[in-house]
Sequence to fold (289 residues):
Amino acid sequence: MRNKVAYLGVFLALALICSYVESLIPFYFGIPGVKLGLTNIVVVLMLYCVGTKEALAISVLRIVLAGFLFGNMFSILYSLAGGLLSFLIMVLLKRTGKLGVLPISVSGGVFHNVGQLVVAAAVVENYNIFYYMPVLLVAGIITGFLIGVAAQEMILRIGNRLK
Amino acid sequence: MKRVSRNDIIFLAVLAAVVAVVFLVFSVVGNKEDGAYVLVTIDGEEYGTYSLWQEQEVPIIQDGVTTNVLVIEDGFADMTEADCPDKLCVHQKAISKNNETIVCLPNKVVVQVMGSEESGFDSIAK
Ligand SMILES: [Zn+2]
Fold:
């Protein structure tokens, strides 16, 4: 890939735009700060077209910057928990080499929400909020599916040009 | 390149089945009945319990500072004021059904609806 730094900058900008859009969507499932995980589209795209290290760097940078821009310390904590867990799961599943973009993205969406819920429960030391687990699991599957479909099309159409 | 492989479909089907089972288990044990009172906890410690059928305004005071205000009216509990930076607890809808919660993460406050008797979900969660 030519101009790697410039490309990574574009990806970071793209991820921040997704964060901003996400911050505008009210999503109160009883657990404050839980986000839909739309930014995962950039992470999935980078995992397939750029590389694991770069994808991790951009997702962490994105979370910290978005926290300062549209959120606060707590939203950073939340997003990091969700983002890192979902990243880990996606990388591990991708490593198996047996699964396509769609199931990996769906797993990422599910574990994004699981990670956030676990941190929320730990912060308030009240495990009754796991009551919201089913709703968050379903939300994760839906967003993960939509992101997977979109990411797959992007990878097929423009993936070669990003390499 | 095929978009979806056989493996993909199997994986997604298994995942969907697992989520369906979780959903089913939670909907069986977690009842959706109107609650009797709310339990307020701070940092996991009980702060107080308040009847949902008694109109009242509950200031939640931590270290001499009122961090949140809970208003209870007609069986609904609603967070109306908070000094947290995100105000997400204030934006949350009023709660009335068993196990529903309002969470203020920065202040570590959890308001939870409880039934008159222990519901199944509580006994599992504990
Ligand atoms: Zn709050």
